[in-house]
Amino acid sequence: MERDKKRRVTRSQSATKGMSDAVAAQKRPGPLGSSILRPLQRCSSVMCHRGHTALVAPCTDLKHETPNSQSYSVATPRHIPVLLNEILALLCVKPEGIYIDCTIGEGGHSEAILNVVHPKGFLIGIDCDKSVLEITERRLGKFAGSFKLVHDNFLNITDICSRLNIKAVDGIIFDVGISSYQIDNPERGFSFNKDGPLDMRMDRSSNLTAQSLINNLSYDELVEIFFKYGEERYSKRIASRIITERKKKLIQTTGELVTIIKKAIPLKRYRIHPGTRVFQALRIAVNNELKNLTQAITHGFSLLKKEGRMVIMSFHSLEDRIAKNKFREFKMNEQAKIITKKPLTPTEEEIDRNVRSRSAKLRVVEKTQ
Fold it and tell me: At 81, which CATH number?
């Protein structure tokens, strides 16, 4: 275990070699010709192998904001971007560059990129969750004119760029999976620890919900989803129990589903919450996540300039496998080189600061032609 810890720390540190703390102030012209003094206290100076240097501004002084919503009245912790310095170093962010954050969420990674590219460069932030974009719009307001937020699925990345008259970009980020903002809101139905409606839609304009899947799919279809998307070993038992219970009454809440799962399986054999894999599987099925990611990686790669980079951060093996296989495909076709032979993972220090970062894996590819 001690050896694994050292390997993890060393691997992550190697990606950010050359980083140093600095105190700086950056004065840049504002969008209307005004002068904006933006202090960067305890910035990190990050240099990539191509010699580009990026100043990484801290996010610790930012206040977390929530959208105006009666259903989400409890304030959640401020979003903490995972592997932030590593991502900026490996993207080789340059002031005049154009970047796409395909899952912008609350804008932690994008804010750090905009600290470098504003006002010469540009960033496109995509998210299918419209409510979180309200938060991000306010958070990034100081960079007005240097970014565009788009409510859409990253599957449509090519069309989005076409609408904005952007033909090629310098870098693309995929921070794949569910966000803290979504987990912490029980009304969204993503958490097995908080009772709420069985929703799980990232895009709330969509009609398909977890409740509709649970109450309408056949036994075989439920088994397939739980096993294929959740790698749940007791898929058959859980599906059978769901079929039995839904004959008595409609299954409507996350709490009801968790109770059903616990009754179906031998709890002593679980080291994680018994609902973890089923909830993951339902979320993936509701949002068609794996198919969308596979296609979006292909579309996004075609938009990269030569030497442009794509960064994919995933939080479970199914997503990571897609990233690994797609990068290998690009390499075999002599279109790219893989920057990370093995995925980068958070240091023990980062995990201590943000426990939700513990399962993150970061892969990077660079386009060569």
Answer: 3.40.50.150
